[in-house]
Structures are given as C-alpha cells and as structure tokens.
C-alpha cells in the first residue's frame, strides 16, 4: 500500500495513513469561520505593519512614517489617559501604594472600596460571572442619573469584556432555526464589522438596511420596513441593531428617530440592540445623545413594558479611550426570566470579565465628585479631550470637503469620518481586473505612496456603485493636518493618473 500511495516509508504510519496529514485543515475547519471578515484589522493594516518594519530597517520610502488612522485606538494615537483613572488602577494593582502620600485621598478611598469588593482584596481574583456587585450597582446609579431618574436594576447589568463581548453574547442567544426559519439580524449599512463578522461566525442571516448618506446618514423607517419585508421571504428577522452615535458614519440620531425605531421594533416584534459606546462623543451643534432606554421609558408603559432591549457601553471610547482594559457593560430590559437565567449561565462559562476592566468601568460611571481633591483636574482633562476631538471633527470635515471628488458629511459624533470618494472608471477597471474592490485598491495605493493607513468603505458596506473610506479623527492635530493634506494631494494625483 505504501508503494501504491507513492510515499516514502518514514512518512507512513502502520495503518497506512500519512503521518504528516493535519487533523485540522482549511477544508476540515469550521466553515463559518472562513466567512468572517474584519476590515479594521485586514490586509491594509497588515501591509501598514510591514511598511513600518521596512522603514525601521532603513528601506527608503516616499514617506518617513506610517500614520494609522484605521482604528479607534485613542491612546495609540497619543490621547492621554485620565489621571484619576490611572491613579486608582495603580493603587488597586499594587496596594502598597496606598501608603504613598503623593496619591490623592479620593483615589485611595476609591481603590479601597474596589479592593474590598474583590475576593481576597485582590484584582487578581475571579469575580462573579455577571460582574462585581458593587460595580453593577454603580453602573445602575450612573444609568439612572444619565436618564433623568428612570429606574435601573443592578440585576439587569452584566459587566462585559468590552462592549463587543456583550454584543456577541446577545447574538448567540438570538440565533436559532434552519433555512427559512434561520434568525435574521438587521444591521445598518455602513456598519461596524463586528456585526457582520459575528453573524457570519454564528451562521445567522445578515439583513442590511441602508443609512441615508444624502441626509447626513440618517435612519429612515421606510428603509427599515423595506429591508424587513424583503428579509422575511428567506429568513426570520428577530433583532434590530442600532449604532448611535454612528460607527463608521459619525452621525447622531435624533430623539424623533429613536422614537420611530422603538415603535417599529414594537410593531414588528423585534429585539432591539443599542450600541451606545460613543455616548459622550457628540460634537455638532443641535445634536444630543439620547439613550434608547430613556426614550423607551418616556414613551410610556405601552412600550417600556414590552419592547425587549439590550444596550451597550464601554471604557474604550468617549474621553477615556482605555481600549486595552476591555471594560464594558450591557443592560437588558424586558428580558424573559428563563432566558435571563440562560444568559447568566452563558457568561459563567467564561468565568468573568477582566477584573481590572471592571474596576475601570466603575471609575467611568462614578468619577470624582464636586468637592473631592481630584474633581477639578478630572473635569479639566475630560473637557480638554472632548474639545480637542470636536475641533478635529470639524477640521476633518472642512478639509475633506475642499477636495474635488471627496464629499464628507458633518462628523456629528463618535471618532470617524466616512467620506464618499469618486474613483475614475479606469481605476475601477484596473482594480476589478486585479480582483480587488475599487476602494481597497485606492486605499492600498494611498498607503504605499503616502504611509497613510485608512480602511476602505467596502469593509463596512456601502450602496452599490459608491466608494468610501473610514478614517479616525484621533491623531494629534498636527499629524491630522499632515494626514489630511496627504490625502488631498494623493486624491488629486490619483484622479489625474486614471482620468
């Protein structure tokens, strides 16, 4: 048999199976994983890392550095952490520092309170699967303050490993059925690729509804209805996801829009998922963040007693930017009690979210108060960070709109712009012939020629025949100006070359 197989004897086992054959191959792996795509860390970013390595090795390039504007990683872009948060975390991680007189007393008292809630008074211990009880209580009080007194039960709060963990967990609960009964989940296009990636991995049906770019990425109920009616022909739509403020589009939905969405969800019996991680990032005049929960309860018992809602927040964005700590929470409203027991079971499988992230979440929802030693510095740092982001949002919009062939909506909130770019037909053809999306082709050329790393709009979804890129507004102002000038110059040259 060894001779028939044509393999050397040393590569054969006694039963005739090749000894070097892999158990796990691309052909035998979970097929849903192969469908997962995540644009913000995709091929463009991988190439950017290679370019950085080449520059460090002395390879000559048309640029001196790579500027990564592909991902909302505030601290990597130079945003400074909030002093009070880091002081308390330092005290919690190394309690010997509680003897150090250079730390303010409110930071010490906060650290002691957090440590007393931890097993063995240590951040290194496991917490309850749902999260540390005192932190969940603080989150509940924060939500009540934010929402003007709408009650919040700490038992409805689940601390999570960033908002992403909570979102994926909820999707796991929602997905069921086969064929035409398979769960459909409505997501906005453009969308944050976490949603499409999670749905692909879970084998759910992605139901696209399009935001209206001509009306500053607003959400039209007629479009929701169109998408729902179409989807019901081939799946069972059960959930509606909203990102507000928007990622990648940077819009802030009006209160009227949120009311309309809640009525739509009630009428069509859809589970609402509200991704509200950018709730402090609102810049444009006339825009204001309205939480789905607050609007839901202000609409009265007809809705507040029936509409099922999960909302999400995180330590990673806003003025904190503490992505690496992976802190977050979700609140569930009107969840069936038996399903809630299953949710608690599901989160217990992973034991608990990172405890330092839980501690940080506690500080976000319970920052220094007036009269405490750290209050003035905290407010000064918080205000400066948000003001800086507001200025950069305006700068990005203004500069991009001076470029012929680029149209950028106002960056009302969040941390991104998602401008529409015109790509000449000649470039579209060259990209298509190379098996690339035209905006991927554009962004890759931009990276190779300028060192600017952006993400093509095709990674987020866009209307057929339109092209975009997403860029963060996070780089320091001086670097952001360089970035925008380079984009401006590149777009002109690119258009000239392919016209």
UniProtKB/TrEMBL annotation:
GO terms for cellular component: cytoplasm. Its cofactor is pyridoxal 5'-phosphate. GO terms for molecular function: L-alanine:2-oxoglutarate aminotransferase activity; pyridoxal phosphate binding. Its EC number is 2.6.1.2. One of its GO terms (biological process) is L-alanine catabolic process. It catalyses: L-alanine + 2-oxoglutarate = pyruvate + L-glutamate. Gene3D superfamilies: 1.10.287.1970, Aspartate Aminotransferase, domain 1, Type I PLP-dependent aspartate aminotransferase-like (Major domain). Coiled coil: none annotated. Pathway: Amino-acid degradation; L-alanine degradation via transaminase pathway; pyruvate from L-alanine: step 1/1. InterPro entries: ALAT1/2-like, Aminotransferase_I/II_large, PyrdxlP-dep_Trfase, PyrdxlP-dep_Trfase_major, PyrdxlP-dep_Trfase_small. Pfam families: Aminotran_1_2. Residues 119-486 form the Aminotransferase class I/classII large domain. PANTHER family: ALANINE AMINOTRANSFERASE, ALANINE AMINOTRANSFERASE 1. Homodimer. Catalyzes the reversible transamination between alanine and 2-oxoglutarate to form pyruvate and glutamate. This is alanine transaminase.
């Amino acid at each position: 048999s060894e001779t028939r197989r044509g393999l050397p004897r040393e590569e054969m086992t006694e039963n005739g199976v090749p000894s070097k054959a892999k158990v796990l191959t691309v052909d035998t792996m979970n097929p849903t994983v192969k469908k997962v795509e995540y644009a913000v860390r995709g091929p463009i970013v991988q190439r950017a890392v290679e370019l950085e390595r080449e520059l460090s090795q002395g390879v000559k390039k048309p640029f001196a550095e790579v500027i990564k504007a592909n991902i909302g990683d505030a601290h990597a872009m130079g945003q400074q952490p909030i002093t009070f948060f880091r002081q308390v975390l330092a005290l919690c991680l190394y309690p010997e520092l509680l003897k150090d007189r250079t730390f303010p007393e409110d930071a010490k008292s906060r650290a002691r309170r957090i440590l007393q809630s931890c097993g063995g008074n240590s951040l290194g211990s496991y917490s309850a699967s749902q999260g540390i009880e005192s932190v969940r209580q603080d989150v509940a009080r924060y939500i009540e303050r934010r929402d003007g007194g709408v009650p919040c039960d700490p038992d409805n709060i689940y601390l999570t490993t960033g908002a992403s963990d909570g979102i994926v967990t909820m999707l796991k609960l929602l997905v069921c059925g086969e064929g035409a009964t398979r769960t459909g989940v409505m997501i906005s296009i453009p969308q944050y690729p976490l949603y499409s990636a999670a749905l692909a991995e879970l084998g759910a049906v992605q139901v696209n509804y399009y935001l209206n770019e001509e009306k500053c990425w607003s959400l039209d109920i007629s479009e929701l209805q169109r998408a729902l009616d179409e989807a019901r022909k081939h799946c069972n739509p059960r959930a509606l996801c909203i990102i507000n403020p928007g990622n990648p589009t940077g819009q802030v939905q009006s209160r009227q829009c949120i009311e309309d969405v809640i009525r739509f969800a009630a009428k069509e019996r859809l589970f609402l998922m509200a991704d509200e991680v950018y709730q402090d990032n609102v810049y444009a005049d006339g825009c204001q963040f309205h939480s789905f929960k607050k609007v839901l309860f202000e609409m009265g018992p007809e809705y507040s007693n029936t509409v099922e809602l999960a909302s999400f927040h995180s330590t990673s964005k806003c003025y904190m930017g503490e992505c690496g700590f992976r802190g977050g929470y979700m609140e569930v409203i009107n969840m069936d009690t038996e399903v809630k027991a299953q949710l608690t079971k599901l989160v217990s499988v992973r034991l608990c979210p990172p405890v330092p992230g839980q501690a940080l979440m506690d500080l976000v929802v319970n920052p220094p108060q007036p009269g405490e030693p750290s209050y003035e510095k905290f407010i000064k740092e918080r205000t400066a960070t948000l003001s800086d982001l507001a200025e950069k949002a305006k700068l990005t919009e203004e500069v991009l709109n001076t470029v012929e062939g680029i149209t950028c909506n106002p960056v009302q909130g969040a941390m991104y712009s998602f401008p529409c770019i015109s790509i000449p037909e000649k470039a579209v053809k060259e990209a298509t012939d190379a098996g690339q999306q035209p905006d991927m082709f554009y962004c890759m050329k931009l990276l190779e020629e300028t060192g600017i790393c952006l993400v093509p709009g095709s990674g987020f979804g866009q209307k057929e025949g339109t092209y975009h890129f997403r860029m963060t507004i996070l780089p320091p102002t001086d670097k952001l100006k360089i970035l925008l000038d380079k984009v401006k110059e590149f777009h002109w040259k690119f258009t000239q070359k392919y016209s």
